Amino acid sequence: MPGLLQTCEELFSTRDLYKVIGVENTASEKEVKKGYYRMSMRFHPDRNSEDEKSTEKFQALSKVYSVLSDSGKRALYDESGEVEDEVDVDQDRDWVSYWRLLFPQVTLQAIKEFEQKYKGSEEELEDLKAAYLEHEGDMDGIMESVTLATMEDEPRFRGLLQELVESDDLPDYAAFSQEGRSKKQHRKRKAKKEAKEAEAMRKELGMDDSEDALKKMIAQRNQSRETGFNSFMADLEARYAPKGKKTKKGKK
């Protein structure tokens, strides 16, 4: 099993744990926790069950935080650039439960409230600027990097970035200012396809935007135990199913 640094390199294209959660290496304990929260919201299983990589990234983010939130492990990492005894980073921990232990009040409503607060904020603008620089103006990378970004946000992002380029606050990358029409259309087609697939899945499971819809997913689990949702459904069952009605161990 690959170590934490190798996993981060594979999933986030960097071995820098601070970059993984989007903070400076001088970040305070509070800033580290905030960075972890912001990034983990992007890949939280409750929000991204259809994304094959989201669970892996969410688990990796939790492991990064478990290192950077420990003063001893963080000091060693800062000094050597390595994580001591990476196998000791608990590979079998329930990282979703660990996340909820840190942020116990998080619900679907809380995620929606976070989205409303984040979009249009200074924090989002800083993330947008960082994504523009990291991907050198490539809108594909920018749209994938900014937390909670959707295709509906692209015109707004373009307007903000154009203003920053014109005011010389950001460099004028050719990938941004000279992006071809075909590339833009390809991105839109891809987004529409993913939206249709997500909507089809929601309809198949009888879901809407309410938390009650998650209970329907639990019922679906009992009819489709062979699907790839088993571990995710088990977590939802523990969270939302009425007490005293859990499936007995070993029962099919």
UniProtKB/TrEMBL annotation:
<dbReference type="InterPro" id="IPR056453">
    <property type="entry name" value="HTH_DNAJC9"/>
</dbReference>
<keyword id="KW-0175">Coiled coil</keyword>
<dbReference type="Pfam" id="PF23302">
    <property type="entry name" value="HTH_DNAJC9"/>
</dbReference>
<comment type="function">
    <text>Acts as a dual histone chaperone and heat shock co-chaperone. As a histone chaperone, forms a co-chaperone complex with MCM2 and histone H3-H4 heterodimers; and may thereby assist MCM2 in histone H3-H4 heterodimer recognition and facilitate the assembly of histones into nucleosomes. May also act as a histone co-chaperone together with TONSL. May recruit histone chaperones ASF1A, NASP and SPT2 to histone H3-H4 heterodimers. Also plays a role as co-chaperone of the HSP70 family of molecular chaperone proteins, such as HSPA1A, HSPA1B and HSPA8.</text>
</comment>
<dbReference type="InterPro" id="IPR018253">
    <property type="entry name" value="DnaJ_domain_CS"/>
</dbReference>
<protein>
    <recommendedName>
        <fullName>DnaJ homolog subfamily C member 9</fullName>
    </recommendedName>
</protein>
<dbReference type="GO" id="GO:0005737">
    <property type="term" value="C:cytoplasm"/>
</dbReference>
<dbReference type="InterPro" id="IPR036869">
    <property type="entry name" value="J_dom_sf"/>
</dbReference>
<dbReference type="Pfam" id="PF00226">
    <property type="entry name" value="DnaJ"/>
</dbReference>
<dbReference type="GO" id="GO:0031072">
    <property type="term" value="F:heat shock protein binding"/>
</dbReference>
<feature type="compositionally biased region" description="Basic residues">
    <location>
        <begin position="183"/>
        <end position="193"/>
    </location>
</feature>
<feature type="coiled-coil region">
    <location>
        <begin position="111"/>
        <end position="138"/>
    </location>
</feature>
<dbReference type="InterPro" id="IPR001623">
    <property type="entry name" value="DnaJ_domain"/>
</dbReference>
<feature type="compositionally biased region" description="Basic and acidic residues">
    <location>
        <begin position="194"/>
        <end position="206"/>
    </location>
</feature>
<feature type="region of interest" description="Disordered">
    <location>
        <begin position="175"/>
        <end position="252"/>
    </location>
</feature>
<dbReference type="InterPro" id="IPR052594">
    <property type="entry name" value="J_domain-containing_protein"/>
</dbReference>
<keyword id="KW-0597">Phosphoprotein</keyword>
<feature type="compositionally biased region" description="Basic residues">
    <location>
        <begin position="242"/>
        <end position="252"/>
    </location>
</feature>
<dbReference type="GO" id="GO:0005634">
    <property type="term" value="C:nucleus"/>
</dbReference>
<feature type="domain" description="J">
    <location>
        <begin position="16"/>
        <end position="81"/>
    </location>
</feature>
<feature type="compositionally biased region" description="Polar residues">
    <location>
        <begin position="220"/>
        <end position="230"/>
    </location>
</feature>
